[in-house]
Write a structure and sequence with these properties.
With 216 residues, the chain is of the alpha/beta class. It has 8 helices and 10 strands. Strand 1 (7-10), helix 1 and strand 2 form a beta-alpha-beta unit.
């Protein structure tokens, strides 16, 4: 991601709002979008002049990098609806394939040996490039641990396309974290909820770069 790359965050729930706010804290401009332009306008006004509210269609058209901070199933819908517009774009997926289990917890909604990264890679619009990133921490930690001093906390990512590594690492750094690639999308199961490197999985915490090198 260069200083001129345009980043859009689509979906303004807890993760989306936090990613957008962290980018602004990192002095990066961000486009925000949601199902209604009113919701996007509200967040843009709160974040200030670095944030611009657009419709989802206009945000996809305008951005080079698109963070789809929406539910796993909604990403599949967006792939279908905006397949042509997403051609050539870098898509960042922070989603986790989970749903409430009606017992106060969550359950996985795809096979135990599957990851959303792998599933979505088979549905990717033509020419789009996918990275699994920005989803290894819960929203509260994503907010509280951003720009931590003296050592930044790590956000893990995975992608099949190593050509977009610099863009993804620049994006993660701009949100206040240290990027660490765990491999291709077939490794993304480790950075999704219940995975070995997720806050709500075996790792269970944030780690520094030195600590990440020992576990990744």
């Amino acid at each position: 991601m260069t200083q001129t790359s345009k980043v859009a965050v689509i979906g303004l729930g807890n993760i989306g709002k936090t990613v957008a706010a962290n980018l602004v804290k990192g002095n990066r401009a961000v486009i925000v979008a949601d199902r209604t332009i009113e919701k996007a306008n509200q967040l843009a006004q709160k974040l200030g002049s670095q944030a611009t509210a657009l419709t989802i269609a206009d945000a996809i058209k305008a951005a080079d990098i698109i963070v789809l901070a929406v539910y796993f199933d909604t990403i599949k819908e967006l792939f279908n609806t905006y397949a042509t517009a997403l051609e050539g774009k870098i898509i960042v997926d922070p989603s986790n394939p989970i749903a409430p289990d009606e017992k106060g917890g969550f359950k996985k909604i795809i096979g135990n040996d599957q990851s959303s990264g792998q599933v979505l890679s088979t549905l990717l619009p033509k020419g789009a490039k996918l990275a699994k990133a920005l989803g290894t921490l819960g929203a509260a930690t994503l907010e509280n641990a951003a720009f931590r001093q003296p050592e930044r906390a790590v956000l893990f990512y995975a992608t099949d396309d190593t050509g977009i590594n610099p863009a993804i690492e620049s994006l993660i750094h701009a949100t206040g974290f240290e990027p660490v690639r765990v491999g291709a999308l077939d490794q993304s199961i480790s950075i999704e909820v219940f995975g070995a490197l997720h806050e709500f999985g075996a790792l269970g915490k944030t780690v520094t770069l030195a600590e990440a090198m020992q576990v990744a």
